[in-house]
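[Meeting: bench + compute handoff]

Bench side (C.D.) handed over the final construct sequence. Compute side (W.E.) agreed to return the predicted structure before the next meeting so the bench team could plan truncations. Sequence as handed over:
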Amino acid sequence: MLNWAARYYPITRILRANGFFDKGSLLEIGSGSVGIGKFRPVPFVGCDIAFASKPVWPMIAVVASAADLPMSDCQFDVVVASDVLEHIPLDLRNSVISETLRVARYLVIFGFPSSDAAWQLDKSLMQYYERRHVIPPDWLKEHMDAPFPGADLFQNLDGWSVEQFGNESLRFHGWLMRREMCRPFVRACTLWMQIAPRIVETVLKWLDREPNYRQIFVLKRTATPTNSDRDR
């Protein structure tokens, strides 16, 4: 769907810029059954607390909590967590970030809705579902449980540099979420993504305008992992 493309295309551009689009080991936390494999057709490990449907290749599925990952230190070149932190209880968010950094060798990418304006937008979307007597999706109901995460979670991280940029304008996100309730619209967008993915990506990049719904944080190790880290 188009909302998947809106949040994954910026991540694949980061991977390309850092040499990890078509090579390197990658872990996606909170991947669901499809994850980044729809946009990066390279085998990767997808981790989630449960899979609602059978995981789709090229994912190698692992059932685990993001706060207690069953992986070794520096096991993956890249770790991605897209639209995950906002679903984590407030008291566990720092633990999830620590675990993510622990298992990453070089690069970590977090993306999540951020700011009160983004939360209010989702609240209005929730009300829109209710007015139409449509059951809201579980992810939207979970968005109402706690404030969205912010940049303060990534302050004073020893050994890591942090870059932040906005993704998906508030206005576009609100419009898109309502349009994706229409099946013909979803089918049309899916077709366009299949026949003209570069055009779709260009349009979505143009729509990454402030004020943004989502923020993306790119974390890079500032020290090269030791040989013992590489072998873990």
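W.E. noted at the follow-up: Residues 49 and 64 are 5 Å apart (CA to CA). C.D. will use this when planning the next construct.
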